[in-house]
Amino acid sequence: MSIKFFNTLTRKKEDFKPINEKEVRMYSCGPTVYYFAHIGNLRAYLFMDNLRRVLKYNGYNLKHVMNITDVGHLVSDADEGEDKMMKAARRENKNPFEIANFYMDAFLKDIDKLNIDRPEIIARATEHIDVMEQYVKKIIDNGYTYQTEDTVYFDTSKLKKYGYLSNRNVEEQKAGARVDFDENKKNISDFALWIKAPENHIMKWDSFFGKSYPGWHLECSAMGYKYLGDEFDIHTGGVDHIPIHHENEIAQAMGFCGKIPAHYWMHVEFLQINGGKMSKSLNNLYTLEDLAQKGYEPLVYRMFNFTSNYRAQINFTFEAMDAAKTALARLRDGYLKHSEGEEDISDDEIRDYETRFLDAINDDLNMPVAMSVVWDVVKNPKKSKKLQQLLLKFDEVLGLDLKNYQKTESVLPDEIQELIKGRNEARQNRDWVESDRIRDLLISKGYSVKDSKEGTLVEKI
Length: 461
Ligand code: AMP
Ligand code: ZN
Description:
alpha/beta; 18 strands; binds adenosine monophosphate; 3 domains; 5-stranded antiparallel sheet; binds zinc ion; 5-stranded parallel sheet
């Protein structure tokens, strides 16, 4: 069965052919741990998890590395602005190492709550300073750098090409140079590899450059090389990594050994909120905890993400979250109904569902289509344990933890379901008196009632 992935490097959907037949080696750019992850960040790790699960479903073993950026790097990818860790340390009156430990822990808890399958290797930058030092020394020896008093820069003009992913060249970058171009750099696309630490800089290490610290892009190249070698299969990140961070990773690897490290580069698009950007100033930046306080369990957010392909932006609204909540409840309910069913389903029918599901996930992780197959199984009027088993199998990719779902949790009693049905009909017929009567009845029986595009949403209070 062939898998197709969209490769940012070639801008094409390609057949996936790993270097080793049985094992896929991949690297994912992980979080900078200076604050809680917001739900946009978490979309990036849900994508990473989706990819892991699809590869496993296809029978591959995985060797997957994700870094934790716990060395401060600057607010902008292009070596400008303030150091993120230092800024957080000042904000919270802690030292940057305490900040990193605290937010790394919070991040790992978040990904566990989302049932994200953890990469085999989670590598902290601060534990790999020596690896980065060895890596950068070789780039220096190979003649790809220049130094100022306080910085070792990568000289991108030494490369045959810079801009493999975004398809830009150094000349084009020069033409687009901003007015505040760093005077110390020879070319606009040059970037810092190693930086001498100012007196008040806390995160610094003794190295060939005195008390100093590595540039941000270096950790991914060096740790990727340490664990996966100079050529591996897949590299993932967010679309924001394409123009600078991943170009610079490729540049470093070219300077180190003359190879583009990964064969397939996959990037997840951004989550938008109400059609726009998330930001603290707009007061629309949510964490998993914020969602929990509004009554959405983490798996609802996971379910919400299946409504779009990872390469498309997705728009977060609370209406869409309500719909995802209802959908998850229906899926669980359908799963339980099949688990109690005694009817027979032919092997052909099962095989047909399996083929359609596999075709969808192997088509560049087309989760909306995969979910339509899941709904066909859920809604099959014949209730059968074979279909329950099939949903469990699909759940290896969905990660909705169906196997641990207990009947008692939230399946509504038949009487309540009948009332909901009656109310939806009344609303369709614009019979507001009847609709209000049923709403009051539901409330008197101890349920909260909310209206949505999908109809009446009811929950036990
Ligand atoms: P950071 O911790 O800032 O390095 O970001 C962690 C990950 O979140 C990166 O892979 C980013 O590409 C990704 N990311 C940041 N904002 C969003 C967003 N709104 N939607 C999806 N991914 C995002
Ligand atoms: Zn990275």
